[in-house]
Amino acid sequence: MAKVLCLGGAGRICRESALDLVQYSDFARITIGDTDERAGQEVVQWLNDLRVDFRKVDVKDRAAAVATMRDYDIVMDGTTITLNGLSTACIAEAGCHGINLNGFGEEYPFDALFKAHGRTHVPGFGMTPGTTDMMARYAIDRLDTIDTVRISHGAFRPIAFSASIVETTSYEYDPKLPSRVVYENGQFIQVPPFARPLDVALPEPYGTHPEYIIPHSETMTVAAYLEAQGKTARLIEVRGTWPPKNMQLVRALYDWGILRNDPIRIAGVQIGIMDAVSAYLMQYPVGRETELYGYALHIDVTGTKDGKALRYLLTHTHPASDGSVAGWEKLRAYTRCVGIPMGIATALIAQGRVKRTGVVMPEFAFDPEEIFRELEKRQITIHIQVTEI
After folding, report:
1. Which of 121, 128, 126 is closest to 106 using CA atoms?
2. Which residue, 76, 89, 157, 82, is CA-closest to 122?
């Protein structure tokens, strides 16, 4: 029976992935691996399963982390974006399968090492990237030609409920970020923050919001999948939004140059201005609460089938965050949406369902319909609408 190390398992999202493994998988051992032993032990108690234990793991101590990982078949990596290069290096050296939430590109240099070990690593498999890749592939597979692929999401969560979420916010709107691109007419084009606004009608209760280009991996992975299928697209765009107040704040931080995190001095101490803002948001309710919680996906693919112009619109829904469904209250409506897909994918890799080795993009790793069926078991439903255009 396989064993899994849940790296960063004390985090709000990865613990939901671990819970999914407890509830649905047949892993013989499910270890919460984290630098925070107190929080990790709390998660062990919360999961309340004899297969679950804790090990202290710090990927910055590479030798010790690799030695620990060698006891496991797969590492489910819930660490932050800035740690993914270190964590993937450890997973590859240890000879484990791997998967993470972010998929921002730090994983691909380790492709040869994963292949040498006959192992698979899937970068970026949560809600977005991950479930979005499956939804886009579902439509692409059913069309002869592709014109546009527009992937959009709304992540309705507090701006600073954890350090990793604060980091994600700052990262995605970094004015200098080279990976904020669109694919247009055969080439990747870099765009600035808040580029190409588009009003996107998300499923209720989230409503219509202006969304902007974000630096998510789907732009590159969808393009790669299309090429492998002998297809191309005129346009691939990935957009996202957070609650309106969050977006209002991030826009102000961008306009005023605060996102650059320039150093300032306060009472003789030097600190980055964005670091100061982040600390404030993490310490006060204004940054740790929001009015509406959850996740909303909107995948819009146009093309032709048998000469007929079609539009595939895929969305997803989940239980309300109002407390009417146990386990989905408030923030958990968001964290479960992100964490559950990684748990599902982790189990499928461990079962040998992914036949490729190396660093494998989500579109090449999984069957979308199998992912959709597994999500449905967890009360996450994918809705598919096909119309002539």
Report:
1. 121
2. 76
Give the 3-state secondary structure of 80-124.
CHHHHHHHHHHHHHHCCEEEECCCCCCCHHHHHHHHHCCCEEECC
Helix (H, G, I), strand (E, B) or coil at 184: strand
**Which CATH superfamily does the domain covering 131-338+377-388 fall into?**
Dihydrodipicolinate Reductase; domain 2 (3.30.360.10)
C-beta separation of 152 from 315 below 8 A? no
Instruction: Kindly report the pTM of this predicted structure.
Output: 0.96
Note the pLDDT tens digit of each residue in 82-114: 899 999 999 999 999 999 999 988 999 999 999
Return the CATH architecture of domain 3-123. Answer: 3-Layer(aba) Sandwich (3.40)
* CA atoms 55, 58, 61, 62: torsion sign: positive
Nearest to 149 by CA among 303, 296, 372: 303
Separation of alpha carbons 65 and 150, rounded Å: 39
Closest by CA to 239, choosing from 360, 335, 148, is 148
